[in-house]
Amino acid sequence: MAKIVLGMGTSHGPMLVTPPETWGARVPDDRLSKHHFEGREWSFDELVDYRRAENLGEQITLDVWKTRHAQCLAAIEEMARVLAEAKPDVVVIVGNDQMEIFDTDCIPALSVMCGPTIVNNMISHEKLQTMPPGVRHAMPGYMPDTASYSAVPELAKHIIKTAMNDQFDVAALQRLSETETPHAFGFVFRQLMKDQVIPTVPVLVNTFYPPNQPTVARCHAFGRSIGRAIQSWDTDARVAVIASGGLTHFVIDERVDQLVLSAMKNHDFSPVFELGEAIFQAGTSEIKNWIPVAGVMDEIGFDMTVVDYVPCYRSEAGTGNAMGFVYWKSPDQQ
Q: What is the domain-level CATH number for residue 155?
């Protein structure tokens, strides 16, 4: 049977693949947007007033940005090293889509790609021009000019079959897209695998878009199902499972991040379940990509190591992206 050899969780935000001098480019868009924080919606100015005592202005100097960017790059290199050292034959990546391949006509709650090929080409110039400045110039960090990679239909179909037997209704995708791959997956391909892409099964969770977002508890149970599927797959393949996304953003909440990391480390998700679904909206919802992987690790008893946690603020309202980098190994590998 297949053997799970590694679990990983990585953030994938644009600030990771752009110079720190550009981190403020997103702030004009932040000022115009409504933001989810502490279970409700806020304007930018309301957040500035509410968080004034945190002195977040101290977090948004260029010197701080340079230091935190360097921390993130070092963590990414350590994650890449750990992945290469594990020598997986197959990788299962749990990510989400942000209208990159789906649209409002159809947004599945849970999806697995079971086709043979993953295509990841740079998006069109026209589409690039529709993106906010802080996102547009990050795209090369997720997409080469043109690339295609091997998928793993046999494992993908086995994951789907196991999930259906476990009472999960899963969409089966023959392809992600004819031209591009969601950045949740592209980040892992480019930054952790360094374009030497290991055959991959993409698993997608609808974290962003109501009304059919799976709950935190549902995501954890789905992860356990994925873990059982991999371990019952009739091969001798070595498999790594990677979560891509999060942590809290577009408004950073370090309290939530530390609670989630502690729950994963302690194999006890009851404090996360108790936070309620209102916390896991907008960017922070991408924590739900980590939770299935944590479910896999709870199923098999691997222990978590935190490589780094780096809150990257870009405004005095607390907007930005809290970056997390962790991995799980069996206790005898630690």
A: 3.40.830.10
